[in-house]
Amino acid sequence: MTLSELNASLTAPEPPHGLAPPVQSLWWAAHGEWEKAHAIVMKDDSREAAWVHAYLHRVEGDLPNASYWYRTAGKPVATGTLETEWTAIAGALLGAGS
Question: How many CB atoms sit inside 10 A of residue 54's CB?
Fold first, then answer.
């Protein structure tokens, strides 16, 4: 799946089948479903999930918790807009396909 396809899928009521859990979490986050998104990354120990987890806590406004998850993911703490970060994470997780 490309980033463009993921963005196009955001009009659907459910995420596309076969998305990796971190990408599925981002999909739910884009729908304002923080709890669903968080539940997905809580079950995944990967660095990719930790990166999404950091983003989710940033969305929530819990910056100390977000900082922990950025460290766990091996990523710098994001300082740009949430929209920019969502796109950067999604693009990276999808292999930067457009």
Answer: 26
